[in-house]
Structure formats: C-alpha cells, structure tokens
Amino acid sequence: MKLTVLGKYGPFPKEGGATSSYLLNVNGKNILLDCGAGAVSRLLKHVKPEDIDVIVLSHFHLDHSSDIGVLTYYYQVLSASGFNKKPLVFCPEGGGPLYEMVVNSPYFEVSVVRGGEISMLEDIDFEFFPMRHPVECVGVKISCGGKTFAYTGDTNVCDSVDDIYEGADVVLIDGGFLEKDWAELKPHLSVEHIVEYTNKYGNKSIISHINPKYTEEELQKAISGANEKCLIAQESKTYEI
Ligand SMILES: [Zn+2]
Ligand SMILES: [Zn+2]
Fold first, then answer.
1. 23, 4 contact by CB (below 8 A)
2. CA–CA dist 56, 22 (Å, integer)
3. How far apart are CA 215 and CA 204, in angstroms?
4. How many folded domains does the chain comprise?
5. How far is the CA of 45 from the centre of ligand 1 (A)?
6. Phi–psi pair at 55, nearest 5 degrees
7. How confident is the model at residue 12, as a pLDDT?
8. Ligand 1 mean position to 117 CA, how many Å?
9. What is the span of the domain harbouring residue 141?
10. Of these four, 165, 212, 214, 220, which has the most CB atoms within 10 Å of its CB?
C-alpha cells in the first residue's frame, strides 16, 4: 500500500495548502480518503479521477468534503463523453446539501455506512468505526494482503480510536490540537494523545488535520516523546505502508 497526502490541514489550509484528503493505493486500486478544499487540484498530479475506484468520506464537514462537489463536475463532463464507470463512495449519513448531492449523484455508486459495518471490494476489506465528533463520522480500517492501514477521520478520545490502533500497521490520525488547546468537549484529539496511543500500541502514526496556526517546530516538540513512530503528515509526500 502507498499513501499520498493531498491535503493535511483543518479546518482551513495554510497559504498554498489543502484540507484533509489522501490517496491510498492498494494493490492497484485507487482509494480517495476525504476530499477537502484543494483536493482535486492536488489529486490531478497523481491520478486521473477516472482511475479512482473508491472514495471514503469520513463525514460531511466542509474541510473533508467540499471538493467532492467539484469532483462531481469532472465526472459530469466525463459522462457526457460516454464514460460510465462509477466510483464506489462510502460515507456516513450527513443530512446537509453535500450529503444529498452525493447520495443522489448519478456519477457515484453510494454505500451509506455506520460504525461496525464491514465491506469488501475484491481482496480489500473495509471496516468502519463510529468516531466521536459533533456530526456522524466514520473511521476506516483498510486491509489487504496482510497489511492494515487505518484512518480516523475527525475524532476526540473514544473507544474506536483504540479499536483502530489494535492490529493496524499505520494509523492516519486527527491531530487537530496541541494539548494546551485541547478539551474533553472539543472535536479533535491532541498531538500528545497520539504520542500516547503510538507508545501504547507500538504502531506507526501519521498525524494530520493540522491546525494552520501551529508551527512545524511546535508540532515536532509535541511528538518528541515518540521516537520515529509518529510523523507529522507532509503534503505531496508518499508513504509506504
Ligand atoms: Zn475536520
Ligand atoms: Zn469535522
């Protein structure tokens, strides 16, 4: 598996950056994980949208889903010239206009999922987890050929984060806060929490959903207790899973 970070910021990007969006290549299949602001422009550097097999939208906050509308226009143009492959879209229930657009789109095959559900596409397993966020949000574990990659979407501390860490080789995780700004009722984990999870479970963490107000130096200081197992996501970088 290979993971390319298209956008790593949330809830808005730094200048020239993009919000949550990641491209996972599993055994020749292209899986787009979230589609935040600026994602389509970044995606085009790596794959053509017609080569995307699966899209997982963790939830319908705009920093994870705003570019899905723009991507739809791309498929609309393709469709007019006879292209009829439909990417499979996994998403939780949303209720807002973007959710309605996705589930009613003629360009997608949509599967609305809840935490606890498992789905398969050929030899790739998708297991979904309910996360703790102000709107319905699903995390996902994607397994193939003995490797397991996991993505939390947005979440604060909850049992699903432990479930996701159990047995995953690499976890792409929401590090929306530094500890000084984190609170029990806020919508994201802190980078320091992720260091604790990484040390507890021993797997590798890629920290994303970075708040643009934090400097690289502050973030590096926060992960210094986790040796080389915690990485701060870098946009346009590809990671071997
Ligand atoms: Zn977010
Ligand atoms: Zn969110």
1. yes
2. 10
3. 22
4. 1
5. 23
6. -125, 125
7. 98
8. 22
9. 2-240
10. 165
Distance, CA 61 to ligand 1 centroid (Å)?
Answer: 6
Q: From ligand 1's centre to the CA of 81, what distance in Å?
A: 35
Beta strand residue intervals within 131-174, DSSP E: 138-144, 147-151, 170-174
Give the pLDDT confidence of 166-192 residue by residue, as tens digits.
999 999 999 999 999 999 999 999 999
Name the one residue in this structure whose structure tokens are 């501390």: 157
CATH number at residue 147: 3.60.15.10
What pLDDT, on a 0 to 100 scale, did the predictor assign at position 193? 97
Cβ within 8 Å of residue 43, ≥6 positions away = 6, 21, 23, 32, 49, 71
Q: What confidence category does residue 115 fall into, taking pLDDT thresholds of 50, 70 and 90?
A: very high
Q: Over 90: is that where the pLDDT of 226 sits?
A: no
Q: Ligand 2 centroid vs 195 CA: distance in angstroms?
A: 21
The pair of structure tokens assigned to 78 is 């393709």
Distance in Å, CA 115 to ligand 2 centroid = 16
C-alpha of residue 176 to centroid of ligand 2, in Å: 10
What number is the average pLDDT over the span 89-114? Answer: 96
What's the CA-to-centroid distance between 62 and ligand 1, angstroms? 8
